[in-house]
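Q: Hi! First time doing this. I have a protein sequence and I read that you can turn it into a structure. Is that right? Here it is:
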Amino acid sequence: MMALTYRSYLKLDQLLSIQEAQSVPPEHDEILFVVIHQAYELWFKQLLHEFDKIKGDFSNNELYGAIHTMKRCRTIMKTLVGQVDILETMTPMSFTSFRDRLDTASGFQSAQFREFEYQLGYKRADMLDYHDKDSTQYQKLVQRLNESSVIDHFYDFLAHRGVTIPVELRDKAVSESTQPNEKIQDGLYELYRDDPSVGILLELMTDFDEGFQEWRYRHVKLVERTIGNKKGTGGSLGVDFLKRSLFLSVFPDLWAIRHRL
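A: Yes, that's right. Below is the predicted 3D structure, encoded as C-alpha cells:
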C-alpha cells in the first residue's frame, strides 16, 4: 500500500488536469475564468456543508457552535467577494475572445448555488426548470426545496431562548420562501437587549447577510461591465434577472429591527 502524500490526499493529479480551455488556440484569460468558477463551486460546496451544521446547532440550542461556524461562513463569503476583484482584471474584450466557446454553458446553471439559495430559505420552485430532471443535481435541488431551511431551524433556536414562534411560521410549507414576521422581530429585539451572547450570533448572521448581498451586487456589476445588456451565456437571462434578487435578505427580520437597537 502506497503511503499517503500531499498529492494523493488532495488528488492533485485529477484536480489540476480539469482546467481546460475550449478556445483554439487557447485564449490566455479562459483558464482564469475556469479556475475562478471552479473555485466558486468548491466554496459553494463548503458553505452547504457549514450551513447544514448550523441547522443542527440551531435546533440543538448550540449557541457557541453556531457562532463559530457562522463566523467561518462570513469569512468564506468575504473570499467569494474578493474573487470578483480577480475576475475584473479580465477585460470585456478578453472575455469576448472566448465567450462564444461557452455554447450553452452558464453560471445560471449552477445547481449548487440554487441549493444554497434553497438552504437559506430563498425557495423558487421554477428554478428547477433549468436543470435536467434525470440528473443527480436535480434530485439534490428537489431535496433542498422540500427540506427545512436554515431559517426554520433558527426558529427552533429562538424557541429555546424563549421566543414564541407564530403558528403560521411553524405550519408554513418548507417549500415556501422565508417571509419577515413582526412577532419574530419583537423576540429578536428582546434577545439583543437581554442576552449579549446571542447578540454576537445575530450580528454575525447580519454580517453574513450583508456579505451575501455585496457578492450579488459585485456579481451583477461584473456581468454588466463585461457584457452590458446582452443575454447571458447559454441564453440565460443576464443582468436584468440578476438585479431582481440584488438586495434580498437572508435574515429579513434582523434588518427590520435595526432602527430599534
